[in-house]
Amino acid sequence: MIRSMTGFGRGEASDNVRQFVVEMKSVNHRYNDIVVRMPKRLSYLEEKVKELVKDEIKRGRVELYISLENIGEGDTDIALNLPLTQKYLNCLREIQNQFQVTDDISVSLLAKFPDVIKIETAEEDEDQMWLGLKDASLKALKLLMNMRSDEGKKLAEDIENRCAYIADIIKAVEKRAPQVVLEYKEKLRERINELLEDSIQLDESRLNTEVVIYADKSSITEEIVRLNSHIYQLKKALKENQPVGRKLDFLIQEMNREVNTIGSKSNDLEIVNHVVELKSELEKIREQVQNIE
Description:
By secondary structure, this protein is of the alpha+beta class. Helix content is 60%, strand content 15%.
């Protein structure tokens, strides 16, 4: 089943200490391009997140927005700098003794001095951080993949319908082709008779030779056979369980090539009109294929 390259997913995960929020969106791209925007404190997990995404997504540009919020007290520690506090206290007592200062030395006074109370970031458990981020990322990735799959089904249905219409046009071209040769023969006969004014008897063998040469030059049998083969391969690819975007793009290019050849070989207005229809439908499929993984 084919998948679109367009999708969005959001995932959340939390424990007693922190909460992760991951938003993930993907758009069409020729290659697999993954961009991660995350807090610096999580930068060491960037490659792990990318590998997680690459396991599921083989083509397209994927942007991840990761946020981290502390919801508990586990990430910070508040500590008293005892040696420094003792030095401050000694200095204050020395001031009292030297200058006969009677003001009391209070806790609030000591706490105001620099670095008496230190706020430190607790050492983080990297494995625990990864488990939380992985959980949120997988939830977002699952929703994104579901959206890509749903849109892929719709794209496949549209392409199959257009392939059926293209097959009908090809049948019409195939049916019309022999008539073009017969009409050419009759027009050539009429033109020769008109020029000769019935003064000279028409050489049927020579006329037939000219018609055979024209039929050979204008033959589109090979192109029709290849077009039908490409349609079969295209419909078969739509049912494969792997990325087929590039394969479909190649098949559309080849089909365009065959249609252009038919157009260049034919001087018949009806076939030329069919060629225009074919090119129009192939262009619509090509636009859809640009968004298939």
